[in-house]
Give the backbone structure.
Amino acid sequence: MSELSTSVAFDLQAIRQQFPVLSRQVKGKPLVYFDNAATTQKPQVVIDALTDYYSRYNANIHRGIHSLAEEATAAYEATRDTVQQFLNAAHREEIIFTRGVTESVNLVAYSWARTNVKAGDEMLVTGMEHHSNIVPWQLIAEMNGAILRVVPVLDDGTLDMEAFYALLNERTKLVSVVHASNALGTINPVKKIIDAAHKAGAVVMVDGAQSAVHLDMDVQMLDCDFFAFSAHKVYGPTGMGVLYGKRSILEHMPPFMGGGEMIREVTFEKSTWNDLPYKFEAGTPNIADTVALKAALDFVTRIGKAAAHQHETALLHYATEQLRAITDVRLIGTATEKVSVASFVVEGVHPQDLGILLDQQGVAVRTGHHCTQPLMARFGIPGTTRASFAMYNTKEEIDVMIAGIQKAIRLLK
Ligand SMILES: Cc1ncc(COP(=O)(O)O)c(C=O)c1O
């Protein structure tokens, strides 16, 4: 048990043993995986759920009357119930399965915004958005003659909330905000943002790509209109994600994609749409990965998000202290409320060179713009080196990274 884990129930070694990849070596060194904000590793239960589906009950869902189809349908729909509980959504039909946050944002953009945001209307995002929460709105703005406005980011990596309140007005139709920044770690005050946006009459979308794994989620308490997360960042499989939407809004939205499953009746003259959530799930969905998402969410719930978050925050504080102690290191994103993301630049060392040298030590970090080019421009840097921590990481692994950074500085400067 690590000295950093304060919860008695949080058994770090037992958790590590559930992730097969953590026992492998990279470049002859034990793997230190600090690229968790990009994607988390998968526990054995998730891998087993995938194998189990393909080896025992692979079948297409919903319209089958044979046993395998019934089993597959039951497993697929059971994930919807689990996601509903995970987000505390009021209704199961408010949970739509997508390929991930990117598709979820595009669904809202092409279905809701395309039909509701008119010429001269405004959409508001923040300066710390991931490209997937910028580009879809830009496409709609161009299509409909609307305007995309941006809430600036302060030097510590928090949002300029005064500017946010000033930017909100009666033309603001949509506010789409990242809950926790993948590049800075900043946790944004989304409840305040949602309440203010609703007062102004705007609809609010929350990008939960980085928050769903760390923070307790309650979409009813938040009162957001849309919330999105990706399975692969919550210890689940890639190519699978969720869009939560309020039923009252989803019901009035046109379909995003046409095809099988999303229809009630098709004639050559006219087609009508299926009920929620199927109206938004065209074609054969990603059944195996949806089934495995349930295993991932059950796993996270069993460990306990609060205990994991406490451990990850302790790791973040330790890493921050160690990084600050290196003269040439400058931290990017120093908000008090953060998820476990440590982003930094080393004066005179290109992030990519640092990343390559860390990989020689078996340490996986991410380098570059993290799909947040406007944010990097705001800080006047081409990119950062980012270490992001998950429940299975240890203090000793941070020591390995810090030694690697010091070695890289000696070699590269
Ligand atoms: C904050 C944030 N938003 C959106 C995304 C996009 O997620 P996905 O690529 O799973 O669709 C990411 C992924 O890195 C992210 O970190």
Summary: The longest helix spans residues 67-87. The pocket of pyridoxal-5'-phosphate is lined by residues 100-102, 130, 132-133, 178, 182, 207, 209-210, 230 (CB under 6 Å). The mean pLDDT is 97.
